[in-house]
Amino acid sequence: VPARVREVNSPEVMGFPVESSNLDALTKDVVHVLAYLSDVGHLPSCLFVLPTEEVIPVYSLGGELRARYKEGPLFTAPDIGPLRARLGEYLQASRCIQSLGELTLLAVSPGDLSLVLPTCILARSIEARNWLPAFPHGDSLSVHVDDRTFEVPRNGGEEVFDLHAEIGRYLAGRQRLREPHELRVRQVGRDLWDQLQGILQPHPRRLVYYLEQDERLAKAHIPVFENRHALVAPQPSPFGYVLHLAPDLWELQRLVADELQRSRVLASPEHLIIQ
Fold first, then answer.
1. Contact 222/259 with Cβ under 8 angstroms?
2. CB 125 within 8 A of CB 189
3. Mean pLDDT of successive 10-residue segments in the chain (275 residues)?
4. What's the burial of 246, exposed, middle or buried (CB within 10 Å: 0-12/13-18/19+)?
5. Are 181 and 166 in contact (CB under 8 A)?
6. What's the sign of the alpha-carbon dihedral 196, 200, 202, 208?
7. In 3D, which of 85, 107, 101 has the Cα closest to residue 15?
8. Alpha-carbon distance 166 to 95, whole Å?
9. How many angstroms separate the CA atoms of 24 and 49, rounded?
């Protein structure tokens, strides 16, 4: 006697797995998840995910973003950067996270309610309130800043540098950055970096510093590349690569040294040298 085949439906609704062999039960479970995540009749536009895999829905209501962790205070902000900063301060004080870098942001696709990781983050520092996630959008890459959306067409990786240049000019023009190139490209994954490296040209110089390992000094270096926009230095970090872009080697050295000092890798920016 042939074995009976049991069909199981197991969709994901905004990252929550829902599974049932009964369509009516599956429908009820999906409605339950949507009701759990909805707020005043609205579904979240994105989610923050903690290292414990707990999720904090973010809602867009009345021109502002709002989020609340469990029974804590309601946080509101006009953009995702300041909302992340305020929520992150509360989560750090509550010992839910140790640093803002532990908060993962996922956008909710309005078409199928799937979750989308940002391609990268544009921000001066990991704690910056001007923290701008860049998301894929069809055949383009887009960033929402203030009440505007900046969008550039995909072009084999060049869109990352094009968007960086455009957003940097915008923020500097509003005196939110001293110089456009102070904006870094953050949380660049290995696959994206491999793609970007393929469109960059190696530069003969590199940035060098020394680390203490097993009571001995070990030499570490960061390679330098160039494209039509700037010189580029890819700095490894716990959350992917940080790409620094600058018009010359000395400014690139300053940017990387500042980042390494902030992350307590270097005691002084003078410890990073050009070779």
1. no
2. no
3. 47 49 53 52 86 91 88 91 93 93 89 88 85 92 89 95 95 93 95 96 96 82 93 93 97 96 90 94
4. buried
5. no
6. negative
7. 107
8. 37
9. 30
